[in-house]
Amino acid sequence: MNHNPTIVGIATGTPDGGVSVVRISGPQAGPIAVELLGKLPKPRRLTFARLALKSRAPEEALVAWMPGPASFTGEDVVELHVHAGLANTREVTEAILAHGAVAAGPGEFSRQAFANGKLSLDQAEGIAALIGAQTQAALHQARRLVAGELGRAVDELRTNVWQLLCEVEANLDFPEDVDTNDQQRWHAELTEFETTLKAWGRRFEQGRRARECARFVLAGPPNAGKSALFNRLIGRGRSIVSNTPGTTRDYVEATLELGPHRATLVDTAGVRSHGADAIEVEGIDRSHEQMSGADLVIWVESATEADGAQPSLKGVEVLRVENKRDLGQTRDRWIGVSASTGHGCDRLLAKLEGWFASDGIDPWIGLARHRDRAHDALEAVVEAKQLLQDNAGLELVAFSIDVVRRRLDEITGRSDVGPVGTEVLHAIFGQFCIGK
Amino acid sequence: MRHLQALMQRRVIVVGAGHAGLEAAFAAARVGARVHVVTGRLDTVGQTPCNPSVGGIAKGHLVAEIDALGGMMGRAADACAIHGRVLNRSKGPAVRATRVQVDKARYGVYAQTMLRQHPGVETTEGLVARVRVAGHRVQGVELVDGSFIPGEAVVVTTGTFLAGVLHTGRTQTPGGRAGEPPATELSQHLAGLGFTLQRLKTGTPARIDRCSINYDGLEAQPSDDPFPRFTAPDDIEPPPPRLPDVHCHITWTCPQTHEFIRENLDKSAMYSGQINGRGPRYCPSIEDKVVRFAGRDRHQVFLEPEGLDTRSVYPNGISTSLPADVQEAFIRTIPGLAQAQLLRPGYAVEYDAIDARSLDHRLCSKDIAGLYFAGQINGTSGYEEAGAQGLVAGANAGLAVARKEPLTIARDQGYTGVMIDDLVTQGCDEPYRMFTSRAEYRLVLREDNADARLSELAHAAGLIATARYQRVCARRATIDEIAGKLGRGGARAELPDAGQYPAWLVERARAQVCYAGYLERQAREIRRIRGEGTQDLPLAVDTNYHELSGLSHEAADRLARVRPTSTAQAARIPGMTPASLMCLWAHARQQQRQQREQSSTG
Questions:
Q1: Among residues B148, B120, B146, which one has the least CA distance to residue B134?
Q2: Could A395 and B514 be called an inter-chain contact, meaning their C-beta atoms sit closer than 8 Å?
Q3: Inter-chain CB proximity A173 and B435 less than 8 Å
Q4: Among partner residues A176, A415, A424, which is closest to B437 by beta-carbon distance?
């Protein structure tokens, strides 16, 4: 007897629409539907039915019966299209729970689908991303993820990595039987993996930029005119502007529309090391915090002042802007603007929009987890190459290549918990003539 | 009745005296049991019926482990070696391995002498028909002649003898190996006891008269210098003196060989459908190679002398079940073998093996207390695999009758542990041979550190003497000292006072330094696969998996077949999903809680 739980959940978003879909998935889906409907409708046909509920009056519903494994979750699935509304959907759900189903947790239908091999992990994550998408770009990327574009690319690379691993392993276990110890070719193949993974990295980053709401932080010494520039850029007086240094005490945010993209522009308190009172010091701390969390820091200094002390910003992109160009120019190669006249602001905005532009790189789907695993794989490829070059021992090269394979497996969630090595051995025997 | 109990007491019966049986007998005796070996013929004890080599990649690791656990194989191989090489020398120390060719006759004599002289071991010549079992507990063995030998534990090491059938062409002869009868009754009896039997197959090539081989133009393969050994140079018992050294030679099959074999395929026992047993893919017969790798126009053949006083040469790489006349004809197409005289034809042997998933990690039956199995009967192939299992099964049988803690070797402690865990967790559908790629902790399981890895276990079980254990500790201290001096410079660093230490210890220290850092990395990788932070919890072998909620039917079936003893073992069953494992952990935790509550209230 199968004791897998049967789960029930409301598959539609809010209960204030006209229709809600209640989904039942699991081995008991059929029997529960029989309890509620009297009999099962024909599979895969939307059928009118009356549900027997606690209330005397039956609920009228459209019912779809999708026996597994040819269903979204791979289990037996029943979907009840009922009238929406909190009370109604609750009564329907409770009737189903009373027949032995359990309430589905977040993402549990997708998890069932993953467990049954209907979806790879990256596809399941794509569904979550699709539901959560806020912008056109994010939606587009999530669709491609659900369609399996990333998974296919990963599988292709994995196949090549796998092939190389088998060759190396055959050399370790059967040195007298195989004569394919072609280290130069192995090196070339590793270089190819490296190129592929590096390109992925650039495309993931491009995808992230296109998908996420970027954070641009205006920062610089006090009285550089950051707030004036902030107001000019967003096109309204949001930040308080004065000639007194240190006017901005806390950071101020506004949304900046840049063509199809959207960014959060942040105005921060000027950074200085002397002459600040306690409140300003707190503001400066927040400025540092904002800068380190920025996608781009727009570092603003005044054309009328000497260089301010720019804090070191590791790993953060910085765009240098000289304000008050209407009063002079001190810095070459900085973008010159005048917040008061608006001069140069169009150029600055174009530059900011350019941050999203892809320079010919096709922005790629892939969430942070995918990017990180791909990055781990890249590191292991580089390590394997180095070990091969250093003649450090083929068993260490094999170790690194195996790490590459596992990280790629983790992206699609296909790594098996089973025994290590058996899979490799099976492949080796199929390919090489082993045997003395 | 009391008399019988006295006879049974603390006695371990070992059935068979091949590589598994001998190690089992000696190990059981070393841990303090009285041992009774029952074997078909005392003059064929410790035979090497297939190739003359001992060791090799991953197999050499097993021999080193047998030696570290106080076993015989390494010492016997050293004493009888006539050719020796270190394989994988161009690679790192973890995958380097010793392989020697032994003088087969001398190896047999060495084993027989040891069996005769070993304290605590007595022998009987005879065939075992039945294991007497009462109330799920072993009582002893019944021989085909009707006699009964009482014992508290029985270790079954029947090799290829269990319902063995030899095939040469269409000719079938019941037998365990050439010239010896099979154990047929025992096979039926084990099936009656509830063991699942499967049919496996292995093979051996013809033997060629050395004087009929033309060695001109064949590539000679000399031994390595220094000659490799399994026993440590500073061993407490000095290593035996060496025998003279002989060369092996390499030749190749040619297109005519393959064509001839193809023409006669229908006469092969394997291709005529006469053999049902699964053969090993890593050791295919020449018929198999010609069919499966049709694109290759030649295959390597190693000509290995079988001893100093014999003219018999073992042509490694052309095992076959073709008729004798076809064998002779195809062998004569091979360069150097045009005039070859066959001393005896090759043959395939089919035999019964049990499903090792019915055993626990001591190699003891989960259902019948005191009944142990080791070697080919568990589905493995190879002397080394058999020896290592025999040692573990014998030691555990001995420890059990002495009511002492069992000896179990974990996967990160030795190849022996990897092999036994693979066998009892996955079973096998072809003869199982050890490979380094089976060991996920390959980088730390080296031939050179087998003593450091296993001596503590061996000493605790009583398998090695205290003096020997102390020797290993001293060795390890010196290696650590040298490793410390090599320090951050790594394995290739200059050692300032290298002359102060024996070269072989410096080499071991370099090996240790070479993999420093990988210990933790390997462990991390394995945790990643098997689930981070999950505790290993015991599982009862009688757990009803089909009644556990949350387990898929498929997972429950797999678990029921293996009956794992711990959640970690369950995690290694092929095809287990993370979801089913989570469910198992939940169940095991609940069981543990209940037990704790029961013990606190009771």
A1: B148
A2: no
A3: yes
A4: A424
Answer yes or no: do B426 and A422 touch at CB < 8 A.
Answer: yes
Q: Which of B53, B342, B83, B330 lies closest to B213, judged by CA?
A: B342
| Most B-contacting residue of A3, A120, A169, A391 (CB-CB within 10 A), to test interface | A3
- Chain A residue closest in CA terms to B291: A433
In this complex, which of B438, B529, B548 lies closest to A415 when CB atoms are compared? B529
For residue A28, give how far its alpha carbon lies from the nearest alpha carbon of chain B (Å).
13
Interface membership of A179 toward B (CB under 8 Å): no
| B316 contacts A419? CB cut-off 8 A | no
Question: In sequence order, what DSSP letters do the residues of A392-403 get, joined into one string?
Answer: --HHHHHHHHHH
Alpha-carbon span B563 to B558, nearest angstrom: 8
pLDDT tier at A359 (50, 70, 90 boundaries)? low
What CATH class has A214-354? alpha beta
To the nearest whole angstrom, how far is the Cα of A10 from the nearest Cα of chain B? 22
CATH 1.20.120.430 fits A149-207+365-431, yes or no: yes
pLDDT exceeds 80 at position A210: no
Cα distances from A400 to residues A382, A404, B441, B518, in angstroms, run 9, 6, 14, 11
Burial class (CB in 10 A: 0-12, 13-18, 19+), A259: exposed
Mutation site, A119, A395, A400, A403, interface B, largest B CB count within 10 A: A395
| ipTM of the complex as predicted | 0.87
Mapped onto helix, strand or coil, the DSSP state of residue A176 is: coil
* B419 Cβ contact partners less than 8 Å away, ≥ 6 residues apart: B62, B380, B385, B388, B389, B432, B434, B438
A205 pLDDT above the threshold of 50: yes
Per-residue pLDDT tens over the stretch B387-396? 999 999 999 9
Superfamily of domain B537-601: GidA associated domain, C-terminal subdomain (1.10.150.570)
Q: How far apart are CA B28 and CA B17, in angstroms?
A: 13
* Region at B247 (left for phi over 0; alpha for psi -120 to 50; beta for the rest): beta
Query: Does A2 have pLDDT greater than 60?
Result: no
In angstroms, the CA B109 to CA B119 distance is 18
Domain A7-115, CATH homologous superfamily name and number: Probable tRNA modification gtpase trme; domain 1 (3.30.1360.120)
Q: Which candidate in B53, B57, B61, B91 is best for mutational testing of the A interface (most A CBs within 10 A)?
A: B91
Q: Are B332 and B340 in contact (CB under 8 A)?
A: yes
The distance of A266 to chain B (nearest Cα, Å) reads 40
Cα-Cα-Cα-Cα torsion A249, A254, A259, A261, nearest 10 degrees, comes to 100
Check A172 against B87: CB less than 8 A apart: no
CB pair distance less than 8 Å for A393 and B578: no
Pick the CATH number of B2-205+351-452 from 3.40.50.720, 3.30.70.1290, 3.30.2090.10, 3.50.50.60: 3.50.50.60
Q: Does A429 touch chain B (CB under 8 A)?
A: yes
Rg value, chain A, Cα: 30
Q: What is the pLDDT of residues B140-172, one digit of tens each?
A: 999 999 999 999 999 999 998 899 999 998 889
